[in-house]
Amino acid sequence: MNKIDNTQYATYFILAILLAPLSGCLSASTSECVVKPNIVWILVDDMSCHFGYQGEKLVDTPVVDRLASEGVVFTNAYASAPVCSPFRSAMITGMYQTSIGAHHHRSSRGKEKIYLPPGVRTIPELFRDAGYYTSISDASSLKRGREDYNFMYKHDDLYDGVDCRDRKEGQPFFAQFMLRGGKIRNSRSGYIKAKDALGKQVAHKDIVLPPYYPAHPAIVEDWAQYLDSVNYTDVEVGHILDQLKNAGMLENTIVFFLTDHGISHARGKQFLYEEGVKIPFVVWSQDKKLIARHKVRDELISHIDLSATSLAMAGIQIPEKMQGRPLFGVEAAPRDFVAFGRDRCDETVDRIRGLRKGNYKYIRNYYPERPYLQPCRYKDKKPFMAPLRKLYKAGKLNGAQSLHLATSRPKEELYDLTKDPYEIHNLASNPAYQKTLTQLAGVLTSWEINTNDLGRIPESSVMYDSDMASFMQRDIKRKQHASLAELKANIALMKKWQGEGK
Fold it and tell me: CA–CA separation, 103 vs 16, rounded Å?
């Protein structure tokens, strides 16, 4: 990263202040004179690094590829959580989900509630305080977009509406657009809509799966539909940009494009391998004074840096407690490592922590006696799960394909991403890597302590039961009897294993 990249936005910001009197600003307040940039977040569900600009040859993604070719690409961006609601809770506060008590997926859904710690505020609130119009919308409609935060808040305290075009004339805006992304393939109506819009599908014969997945027809079909969803996401991004352009709202606007975690698959979503936590992250503006053209940056960044960067670009003071870091300007500070964690996902209790430092990935499993793929109602209904379990039981999977079906886990995992990008060969027990293992284990432990990782405290039975009661009530209301029975069985198993100290 060169000096021009570091100071670019700060320079533009100073120039804007100096030139403000020439633009007709009569206010005595310098901050009010500065023309504030609009900030747009385009967030995609359940999608890994499979866009054209990232080298995926089976997709056609000209819109996102153009953003990447004209903007700034961060090649090593990571989610601090590999599942939706903890990711979003972290994103919207600029804080690790583990530091604010929002680390359990779909928590605070029952009678027991979670509140943000004192002094922690959301990004939309900070933008509203600075005079911005704030909105969140479903990209396919003018309906309220998905929030999915694990703490209590009032929607009206965060967002002014669902359409940024409703802002007052001349008012800067902070707009979030939510796309279903990889979830399209698990929705019959959504996938049909996407298929019709695309007019073509990725051919099954061309699919090359990662080496840890068997080429079972159901798995190949699912992966092909996933790549179709990547193509459809590109179409939706194009619609968003056209909408802003036609409204004259792309000028002085900075667009962030990213996904909330990786593909929903056995080794992806919910887990800390590259497929689960490494994400696309592009920053673009049609105004090259705001964002440099065609820059590729390889430093490690966390998705919570999105929040701090957005505030800094808008000239809004970054809260002292915020753990996200600005990526541009004089305040930009490279990370020595990125950390991530997985905790309870719906009814399935787990705790995994990990980090990437240099080209090494270190993972710590806090429930090593449990299987990787514990019973989980959400994941078990995916089309790839039944074939995987059946093939494993029949002994028809090779070593790499069996890894995630194992009935227990190592306490520690260490991977050299340069030599082993698919994270198949665990080096934790290799004597040649003990120094590296010890170093990274110490870094992770320090991170847990320094960030006050609340996952160190087991979730109370009161909170767990409260959330589970809300899930069961939903099934009862929808008369989903089979799903309810499965949920109850999984909950009972979680409590049994807990009682056994497993």
Answer: 40
What does residue 285 show for φ and ψ, rounded to 5 degrees? -150, 145
CA distance 132 to 303: 22
Q: How confident is the model at residue 141 (pLDDT cuts 50, 70, 90)?
A: confident
Domain that residue 491 falls in:
462-502
We report the CATH number of the domain holding residue 72 as 3.40.720.10
Given pLDDT bands bounded at 50, 70 and 90, which one contains residue 8?
very low
| 178 backbone φψ class: left, alpha, beta (φ>0; ψ -120 to 50) | beta
> What is residue 93's three-state secondary structure?
coil
Report the relative pairing of strands 253-259 and 360-365 from DSSP bridges: unpaired
Q: How many CB atoms lie within 10 A of CB 170?
A: 6
Mark whether 476 and 329 lie in a shared domain.
no
7 and 138 co-located in one domain: no
5-to-113, 166, 289, 335, 483 alpha-carbon distances in Å? 43, 34, 11, 16, 52
φ, ψ at 444 (rounded to 5°): -65, -45
383: nearest Cα among 196, 198, 182: 182
366-382 pLDDT, tens digit each: 999 999 999 999 999 99
Q: What is the mean pLDDT of the chain?
A: 92
Structure tokens at 365: 């499993």
Is residue 5 in some structural domain? yes
Distance CA 261, CA 84 (A): 7
Buried residues in 180-206 as b, exposed as e (16+ CB within 10 A): bbbbbbbeeebbeebbeebeeebeeee
Specify the pairing of strand 72-78 against strand 295-302: parallel
Whether residue 177 contacts residue 137, with contact meaning beta carbons closer than 8 Å, is answered with yes
Is residue 297 classed as helix, strand or coil in its secondary structure? strand
Cα–Cα distance measured from residue 169 to residue 12, given in angstroms and rounded to the nearest whole number: 24
Place of tokens 């409260």: 466
In 3D space, the residue among 315, 355, 360, 358 whose CA is nearest the CA of residue 338 turns out to be: 355
Identify the CA nearest to 110 among candidates 461, 349, 453. 461
307 Cα distance to chain centroid: 13
